[in-house]
Write a structure and sequence with these properties.
- The chain has 196 residues and is mainly α.
- It is 84% helix and 0% strand.
- The protein contains seven helices and no strands.
- α2 packs across α3.
- The relative contact order is 0.19.
Length: 196
């Protein structure tokens, strides 16, 4: 088991190294929040861009995997690696060629994850009854309802939901970067950061 003083010291040392760059963290946080707002306001465009970006990443990943597979063609796992790369490439091509269908498929996948995750979270919290279990159960119920609403509103929900979700993620990432930058700025360089 690691010594907490060592872990705390390394965290403090790492934060001390970024002390002079606090402004960049705040600037990046502001930019991410602005980008998140743009994604939410243009959620349909952001959804399309996200699906196309995912498709291109899959195609590029497939090309790299195919090159790697042929470089190790005498390896016993060549065919599995080769077929995985082909499947990745086909999935990427389908997303690029038919982004509307990709939007629907990804939304169905996300809705299913919300529904199943919500059920497990609610049942688990109600069964274990750990401290403040009601909040976890409530969170599970909300996830289940969101998933059910997405399935109910298909295919319309697939046009905006992914872009909205990406926008919300950008906003929360931006807020966390601003919080980190301002926290690092408040503590003078070389001084131990307080742990919560």
């Amino acid at each position: 088991m690691a010594d907490t003083r060592t872990i705390g010291g390394s965290i403090s040392e790492g934060l001390d190294k970024i002390h002079d760059s606090w402004g960049w963290f705040v600037a990046l946080g502001i930019a991410l929040i602005a980008l998140g707002v743009v994604c939410i306001m243009g959620d349909m465009t952001a959804t399309l861009a996200t699906v196309l970006a995912l498709g291109w990443l899959l195609v590029i990943g497939a090309i790299v995997a195919l090159v790697q597979a042929f470089r190790a063609y005498d390896w016993s796992g060549f065919w599995l690696y080769f077929l995985t790369a082909l499947l990745r490439g086909v999935a990427g091509y389908v997303l690029i060629r038919y982004p509307g269908s990709g939007e629907v498929s990804i939304t169905i996948l996300l809705a299913s994850l919300f529904i199943v995750g919500g059920i497990f979270r609610t049942v688990g919290a109600a069964s274990l009854r750990f401290p403040s279990w009601g909040w976890a159960a409530f969170s599970g119920i909300v996830s289940f309802i969101v998933g059910f609403m997405l399935i109910y509103q298909l295919p319309t929900a697939s046009l905006w939901f992914i872009g909205f979700l990406v926008g919300v993620d950008f906003i929360f990432d931006g807020i966390s970067l601003i919080a980190l930058g301002t926290a690092v700025k408040k503590v003078p360089a070389g001084r131990e950061f307080a742990r919560a």
